[in-house]
Specification:
- The structure is a single chain.
- It contains 15 helices and 10 strands.
- The chain is of the alpha+beta class and about 375 residues long.
- Helix 11 packs across helix 13 and helix 13 packs across helix 14.
- About 45% of the residues lie in helices and about 15% in strands.
- The chain is globular, with a radius of gyration of 22 Å.
- The longest helix is centred in the C-terminal third of the chain and has 20 residues.
Length: about 375
């Protein structure tokens, strides 16, 4: 734990992310042991491979997480008899601002992109490849500021879809994520002149007997891509939609895994999260003191001066150092409070999910 002097004679220790993940799983096991016990056992492999996954993502790859998925023991069930891949678009027609694709998970490539991508986005079908999206052969289609976050979340998603205990149904369960792309290669003048657009990707595992590999995982995911103006974009952060209980568990778990990869101190994050909701340091201190009493029965004795010192002397320098690993656009030190909040949102570490936040305060100790 991170220990700090908050008042005369009293030290407060804030938790770390690995301890937080263990506590989160303990809480969830008490609620739903059948779902969560297998998850907890499997996640020990993630902790062991954390440094490998970080390096993998930095190299524009999710191969470590993908290999974990290929060895997966999650349950994949067809919700209904799906049509053959080539007939999918007859059953799921595109709107005017959508196109579709089929991705082969084992071969790590798109095996089909719908023809209307040329009408909606102005890209030739052959141009829309994984290599071009992430820039293995040159400048990426994905906006350079969004690419590191897209890759980090891709690794997390492959991991989540591999975990024993989870159950996924075709055509019901999906992942949703948004990111910006460059339109400089579009054949449509109006789109090309915009320079950027937002793609929203709805990704569903394609599950039927012919679509399951020998290793037991689905061979494909079926993706619907919706195009938006860039003004609709905030930050890259996925959402997982399954059954209610599993969906809530998966989204909070994804958040915690992301925090482990980012490795920004819990105490600093709690302060920054409150600063994102309150415009004065006094209100930040009051809110944190109330939560420390409510969730940990601890007198925090924080005040506006201590919050200001933390923000300027510790939080912004540490956040600058952290973000330089993931945010290529960050050239200078983070100076302003709102700049710090903006970068924390880019990293997907704020806002903190309510259940996770109460747990983090509850793990604080004297």
């Amino acid at each position: 734990m991170n220990t700090d002097q908050e008042s005369k004679g009293q030290k407060i220790s804030f938790t770390n992310w690995k301890t937080s993940l263990s506590k989160f799983l303990e809480i969830e096991i008490s609620k739903n042991p059948n779902l969560c016990l297998p998850v907890a056992k499997y996640l020990s492999q993630f902790i062991e491979k954390m440094d490998l996954i970080k390096t993998d993502i930095a190299n524009k790859s999710a191969s470590v997480s993908l290999q974990m998925m290929i060895r997966a023991m999650a349950t994949y069930e067809p919700d209904k008899d799906l049509p053959a891949l080539k007939d999918l678009t007859k059953h799921f027609p595109s709107s005017k601002n959508e196109f579709q694709s089929i991705f082969n998970i084992e071969e790590n490539k798109f095996i089909w992109v719908s023809e209307n991508i040329e009408e909606t986005l102005g890209f030739p079908r052959g141009h829309f490849t994984l290599e071009n999206l992430i820039g293995l052969n040159g400048e990426p289609i994905i906006h350079p500021e969004d690419l590191p976050h897209f890759m980090r979340w891709a690794g997390i998603s492959y991991l989540l879809f591999s975990i024993p205990g989870f159950k996924f149904e075709s055509n019901n369960d999906y992942q949703l994520i948004k990111f910006r792309i460059s339109t400089k290669d579009s054949k449509i003048k109006q789109i090309r002149e915009l320079q950027t657009l937002v793609l929203s990707k709805k990704s569903q595992l394609y599950i039927n007997k012919s679509g399951i590999s020998e290793s037991g995982i689905p061979k494909y995911h079926f993706d619907t891509w919706t195009i938006y103006d860039s003004s609709f974009f905030d930050f890259v952060r996925p959402h997982y939609v399954t059954s209610f209980n599993q969906s809530s568990f998966m989204n909070d778990l994804a958040y915690l895994i992301n925090c482990i990869l980012v490795d920004f101190p819990v105490k600093y994050l709690l302060i920054l999260n409150e600063r994102s909701k309150n415009d004065r340091n006094k209100l930040v201190a009051n809110s944190m003191n109330d939560k420390l009493i409510s969730f940990a029965s601890i007198q925090g004795n924080l005040d506006e001066y201590k919050i200001g010192d933390y923000l300027n002397k510790s939080i912004k320098p540490k956040l600058t150092s952290t973000c330089r690993n993931w945010c290529p656009e960050l050239q200078n030190d983070i100076i302003g409070d709102y700049e710090a909040i903006n970068y924390a949102r880019k990293m997907g570490i704020i806002p903190i999910p309510s259940q996770v936040e109460s747990m983090l305060y509850g793990l604080t100790d004297k």
